[in-house]
Design brief:
The protein is mainly alpha-helical. It contains ten helices and no strands.
Amino acid sequence: MLGFVAGVAFGGVMIPAGVENTQWRMILGSTAIPPIFVCAQVYLVPESPRWYMSKGRYEKAFESLQRFRWSRFQAARDLYYIHKQIVIEYELQEGKNLLKEFFVVPRNRRAAQSSFFVMFMQQFCGVNVSKHKKLVHSPSN
């Protein structure tokens, strides 16, 4: 939605004399505005406690959990729960080939095929082009 708002904002920009068809470039460039905000926020978010624990760095995981919890007791409780979840997951995954299961298990295969089809059709059908058609073509064309 924010990309559409940026497209509308750049759709009516006055074009300097002698320059033609620059509105589509501004609309296309406006899609870079939201990712800039996301990239700036990456440095404000701590690493995942679960990732720290999977690498054996429990002290850093506890510090990360303390930023999100009201007390040290809650952080310690969640640290224990995450630890137990990781242990159980490793026990369940032991001896399994997850890449093989991706293709062998019918449910996983159908889900992957469906998501691939949806993503392909989103790019292939040209909805974004037709959605912004009013913004690209000025009334004088």
